Amino acid sequence: MAKSKDARIRVLLECTSCVRDGVNKESTGISRYITEKNRHNTPGRLELQKFCPYCYKHTIHGEIKK
Fold first, then answer.
1. How far apart are CA 28 and CA 26, in angstroms?
2. Is residue 1 part of a domain?
3. Does pTM top 0.85 for this prediction?
4. 3 in a domain, yes or no?
5. What is the pLDDT of residues 5-39, one digit of tens each?
6. What's the CATH code of the domain at 33?
7. pLDDT at position 36
8. What is the domain extent for residue 56?
9. What pairs with residue 58 in β-bridges?
10. Is there a domain that residue 41 lies in?
11. Burial track 36-65 (b if 16+ CB lie within 10 A, e otherwise)
12. Looking at the 3D structure of the chain, how many domains does it have?
């Protein structure tokens, strides 16, 4: 089966604070969210403010590869 050329694709968003700290002692894991984006409207990497349950605050979550 060929890959689909749909405009809407699923992306993973990962907490940049947890990753940058290397999962420090206060943080017990890495927060990840799954969302969709329109490939034609946002060709670049997606970054959103989301709540990180490991940092206990709102942080920037950036798009990562699957």
1. 6
2. no
3. no
4. no
5. 788 999 999 998 886 655 555 556 788 999 999 99
6. 2.20.28.120
7. 94
8. 9-18+28-64
9. 51
10. yes
11. ebeeeeeeeeeeeebebebbeeebebbbee
12. 1
